[in-house]
Amino acid sequence: MGDLVLVRHGETAWTVSRRHTSYTDLPLTAYGEEQARDIKPLLAGRAIAAAFVSPLERARHTAELAGIDNAQTLPALHEWNYGAYEGITTADIQRLRPDWKLWTHGTPPAPDLAGGESPLAVGLRADCVLAHLEPFLSDPEAGDVVLVGHGHFLRVITARRLGLQSAAGALFVLGTGAVSRLGTEHDAPALTAWNITADTVGPTDRPSLSHRID
Which of these, 109, 181, 200, 205, is most buried using a 10 Å CB contact count? Predict the structure, then answer.
């Protein structure tokens, strides 16, 4: 039985400025491309049974630079739909709504447009993704399943895989270009590696995704 390996895309201009980015299709920065290339040794030696990627350029380019071959595009892997808050920072939102938290309140639709998602809706979408992956994750002969996607949605995937509510994704901070692993312990899903990057492990420790945090 393989693990669920989560890869967050590399840096974009809006991750630097901390602006909410869902469907805005931004490219990686030069540093983001470097982060993506640094993912490749973190995955070295792992048998990958299947790989899936968000349809957005920043995720697809990350997968390519990381050497994740034959990744299938999975539209449901797109980022949390920020609706009216697309392109806006949390600090700016809280000037108008001081008590607002993404994990509690979700996001409203943009005026005259569809969009916005509640934590419940994002959690249901994550459950659909996990159901799609279950044949791979439950096969004792299969290797790892890799998801290349976005920070907030991968954090919701993590919460739901561990049997937690969507809002528990707030507990799992995930940087750009980071690799994480959800394995099992006594046949139950467990967090076995989190937020690993080339910067956190150093060059002498690679490949590092075999390192455990327990």
Answer: 181
